[in-house]
């Protein structure tokens, strides 16, 4: 019998997952299109690898095992899998067609919805991925200012301009790498050190898992403007999650340009660049930002329906309330087991992160052990609580029960130092994405 969301007495059987994975090896280097979904992020031999379907906050793997999901497609599934209002809108659109030879009314309608909801949005353009939107923002800022340098903080996608700042930058020309430096979150002095009067744009994620210090976001804006740079908020995670109007609404700081993507379409491939008319108007001129699928209607129909649900219902309040229960509940359990110094959960309710301290043992081994035990209880977890409108209080209750069991085992391992011996598969591997403090040095100029 496949496992269910509940206490199972054995790990899920994953024969079909493993068979598909065996076919993918040697066919798709490195088997996944999304690093965060790949087998390196889950205990190999215990976790499922391929998902067949989802419903609400649950999904079923190709072997029929049921899981409560805390990744929600790595962010985009804000309302829940197969959310009726969104799927109905997509089905209705499908009856009229997908991609046409002229523009479609949905392009206008969704642009208006974004202007109604995102404080900085006076004009809008669409893309299909977050990286497309951030790359368009950078090109636009460069064209608007007539400058080339960029200073950034956070993750902004796979394109050359950004990935050249990180370790996996093979294939990015040195000249492109030289134009971009990073600064540290909550550290205005590091921004002052990185920026100069040749900087076209300062782009940052307004929040990942640490809360912005009082005045930090306003300080970033002030420094950017003092140097004549465009201030871009990358709200691909925070947009439509932290508040209907994103982190800029939540923290009361309005950028010049904004990128949104994950939060707004409940899983359809969509992104948008929005911002001040004075800057956005430059897209009318010589800046080239066009692609075949930019106005594709299935994604626009799904996005329109998603934003309309959010305008009518308390979606963001729900994400935050349930996510706060999970975050605070996790910390209470860890404290109760005497391991609060080794593990904790931080972040916004809509998206929080569990961390492990190296003083207890290799953090990846600690994470693997907790993950393995949660998977046994039907909870698919890779260190995050990415909440959806379909998660319920009962889901949170079950997850906290599962944490209670998993952290009991964690505490035993912390006591005797035996992590790997308790694992029934291979431990998870690091992602290149650090959440704070990566590559923060200003580049030599
Ligand atoms: C803040 C942020 N910006 C940009 C991106 C890139 O988006 P995509 O993977 O859709 O290209 C991501 C993706 O995780 C992101 O989290």
Q: Would you write up a description of this structure?
A:
The chain is 36% helix and 14% strand. It has 14 helices and 14 strands. It has helices spanning 15-24, 84-94, 105-117, 130-145, 160-163, 174-177, 188-194, 216-226, 246-251, 277-280, 297-312, 315-336, 363-376, 393-416, and strands at residues 51-55, 58-61, 66-69, 123-127, 149-153, 180-182, 199-204, 230-234, 257-260, 271-275, 343-348, 351-356, 379-380, 384-386. A seven-stranded mixed sheet has the order 4-10-9-8-7-5-6, with helices on both faces. Helix 2 packs antiparallel against helix 11 and helix 12 (315-336) packs parallel to helix 14. The longest helix is centred in the last third of the chain and has 24 residues, at 393-416. It is globular, with a radius of gyration of 22 Å.
What is shown here, in short?
The chain has 445 residues and is α/β, with parallel strands linked by helices.
Can you tell me the CATH superfamily of the largest domain? Type I PLP-dependent aspartate aminotransferase-like (Major domain)
Bound molecules: pyridoxal-5'-phosphate
How many independent structural domains?
2
The shape, in one word, is globular
Based on DSSP secondary structure assignment, what is the total number of beta strands? 14
Q: How much helicity do the residues have?
A: 25-40%
Q: Per CATH, which architecture of the largest domain?
A: 3-Layer(aba) Sandwich
Q: What is the helix tally?
A: 14
What portion of the residues fall into strands of 2 or more residues?
A: 5-15%
- Biggest sheet strand order reads 4-10-9-8-7-5-6
**Would you tell me the structural class of the helices and strands?**
alpha/beta
